[in-house]
Amino acid sequence: MLVFEISREGRRSFFLPESEVPTHTLSQTRQDELKLPQLSEREVIQHYTNLTKKIFSVDAGFYPLGSCTMKYNPKINEDVAGLTGFSDIHPLQPAETVKGALKAFDELSDRLAEVTGMDAITLQPAAGAQGEFSSLLMIKAFLKDNGGGHKTEIIVPDSAHGTNPASAVMAGFDVVTVPSDERGLVDVNKLKELVTDKTAAIMLTNPNTLGLFEVDILEISKIMKSVGALMYCDGANMNAIMGINRPGDVGFDVIHLNLHKTFSTPHGGGGPGCGAVGVKSHLEPYLPTPVVRNGEILTNRPSSIGPMKNFYGHFGVFIRALTYTISLGGNGLKEVSQNAVLNANYLYHLMKDKYPLAKDTPFMHEFVASMANLKKETGVTALDISKGLIENNIHPPTMYFPIIVPEALMVEPTETESIDTLHHVADVFNSLVDTAHSDSQALKDAPSNTVVKRVDEVKAARNPILVHND
């Protein structure tokens, strides 16, 4: 039920004393009374506590959302972000009163620059997509200032995140799609044909959305640089290569990072997030303002693309990510990536007989299986498998992405899952394929043990029913 449905006239959960502050009537006031729910404190607590029991989260169970890196968020991060010196400050305070916070900016920026092989970092973008957009605006400004104003095309692989081409269009570029080859990697020969003097940059996720490392990355970089184009790295999959491969060392000029993925800050529910952007020195003058450097706030930046968000970004997210990097250290971050790759490969080893890879190629932190043959044999789809997982208290993996894979399931266990969890998850996955062959209708009816059963998803999106009477 909605909180408004259990409201009863006259109930209260708090009582305020008479105000001693003089009151003033505003020139513009509401014409109707604000209709807020009226409940006792007990009813408020009971309502929201019951709601939490119906919500699935990383803390509640296995959450293998491929490409989104839904990893456990260490609680020490929350403790540090809650310290009064971080939580009780305001962005309009004079800089001399928040020196510790500014030092935290510098410390995190330095650490991210070291991990990525970049020269400078901005923490301002609020999400990965805004980090992409910021990166492309900087590329555009740089090219304009250096005789490349005629470069209007961005090359994007056919397996890219959907935000990549969207960001390119928003930044005023035309999108040129480069296909994948039989390995699931960028088709280098096709890339050579597509690159022209109009090419501004390539947007490349590495490892890519199939969980595969672009082994031709040095050749791709050489091709792009031969026409004066830049290299942008979508860092959504950085969890696979921290401490192992630095994008800045293999030709990338700019990268965005999802602190709400790789660096263990809360992810989901609409935010807040951080799409931090790292750049090489030639793009540094174009970073969004204000820029925090060496404890100072710099606003006089004539080449800057301007602010991408109010003030400096989501500060609490920065502190959580900083705590994470300090807790682990350089070797720890490397171990995170090694364990993420190990977990993904071990889980697939347990599933390989029933979940064929989309591309039978060594992968890293995630893998993409195709349920196309299962659909032909039984009529059970990737969606049906996902509904079966829900029935077993496992969050579904990413479905039907990348779009180049029919009936795709993208599974990313991350480094924070135990071997016991991996064995349990593999048993559930494998049992669902058995069920598909023995009782396919059971999967088409799943889930049967949840508050909301199988829904018509198209109808639900177009005609949502927001009241639950149970």
SSE run? HHHHEHEHEHEHEEEEEHEHHEEHHH
On the 0 to 100 scale, the average pLDDT is 94
Low-confidence stretches: none
Instruction: Order the strands across the largest sheet as they lie in space.
Output: 1-7-6-5-4-2-3
Strand runs, count: 12
Q: How many angstroms separate the termini?
A: 8 Å
How would you sum up the major sheet?
7 strands, mixed
Describe this structure in words.
The protein is of the alpha/beta class. It has a domain at 76-325: Type I PLP-dependent aspartate aminotransferase-like (Major domain) (Aspartate Aminotransferase, domain 2, 3-Layer(aba) Sandwich), CATH 3.40.640.10. It is built from 14 helices and 12 strands. The chain has helices at 41-52, 75-81, 84-87, 99-116, 128-145, 163-170, 188-194, 217-225, 315-351, 372-378, 382-391, 419-438, 440-445, 457-462; strands spanning 120-122, 153-157, 174-178, 199-205, 230-234, 254-256, 277-279, 291-293, 296-298, 367-370, 398-399, 408-411. It has a 7-stranded mixed β-sheet, with helices on both faces. A 3-stranded antiparallel β-sheet has the order 10-12-11, covered by helices on one side. The protein has a two-stranded antiparallel ribbon with strand order 8-9. A hairpin with a 2-residue loop joins strand 8 (291-293) and strand 9 (296-298). The radius of gyration is 25 Å and the shape is globular. The chain starts with 40 loop residues before the first helix and ends in an 8-residue tail after the last helix.
